[in-house]
Write a structure and sequence with these properties.
Length: 233
């Protein structure tokens, strides 16, 4: 296996970052610093990164249903609850794939597969993320059309989105919105751009990976089929 893949597979960092570590002389193979990119690792080889021996780690993939008031981070300087606490009984150190706002609930993938995290969060990566938003007021057909076509969220025009009104009540609407991008607070900003404030936001799917009936604060392991699907994206 190539050295950069071995390092990424051990959950240390992405493959690209591993290349940087190698180029900077921070990686030793069987006691000697290696700087060649194409270097491979054989069974029984000892790889040391930044002075620490690394072991090939088994990969774990879970879907978490993030509750309100949890931050998508491994620790917090303000002592708020973090999503790491939701998977605390899993011995491997799992990292969130992308972010959900403090006030957003729903589907968050967590894994120690650095390569998959890197690919899925790369801006070029195009997979629909589905959200269900409860918004104040009425979503008219004109607003729907604007949201679908693209709106200005402060110097950035959003790409075409799939949007449908699930339920229109006198004072609020429940709307499903599917977007491929992941700008900071994008869904909230998109609704703000058409004059509707988001009162509650839940992510229900990433591509074909669905939250289903997973209870808030709980996690489930992804199935083999789901893992293969994510890797194929
Ligand atoms: N869009 C938002 O506004 N918030 C999220 O957490 C995710 C998408």
């Amino acid at each position: 296996m190539r050295l950069n893949k071995y390092i990424a597979d051990a959950g240390i960092c992405s493959r690209r970052k591993a290349d940087e570590l190698i180029a900077c002389g921070n990686v030793k193979l069987n006691g000697a610093v290696v700087r060649e990119m194409g270097c491979t690792v054989e069974d029984g080889d000892v790889v040391v990164v930044n002075g620490r021996k690394i072991e090939a780690e088994s990969k774990v993939y879970v879907v978490v249903n993030k509750p309100l008031g949890y931050i998508t981070s491994m620790d917090d300087d303000k002592d708020r609850a973090t999503v790491a606490e939701l998977v605390a009984d899993i011995p491997e150190r799992l990292f969130p794939v992308g972010r959900l706002d403090y006030n957003t609930t729903g589907l968050l993938i967590m894994t120690n597969d650095g390569q998959l995290t890197y690919t899925l969060t790369h801006p070029k990566h195009e997979v629909y993320k589905t959200y269900v938003a409860k918004v104040a007021g009425v979503i008219s057909d004109t607003k729907l059309a604007r949201l679908r076509k693209g709106v200005d969220i402060g110097g950035f025009i959003t790409s075409p989105a799939k949007v449908r009104v699930i339920k229109q009540m006198p004072r609020h609407a429940v709307v499903e919105i599917m977007i491929k991008e992941g700008k900071n607070r994008q869904v909230r900003k998109m609704f703000a751009a058409v004059g509707n404030r988001v009162q509650a936001l839940e992510r229900t799917a990433i591509g074909d990976i669905r939250l289903g009936h997973l209870m808030e604060g709980h996690y489930r392991k992804l199935t083999k089929k789901e893992i293969e699907y994510l890797k194929s994206l």
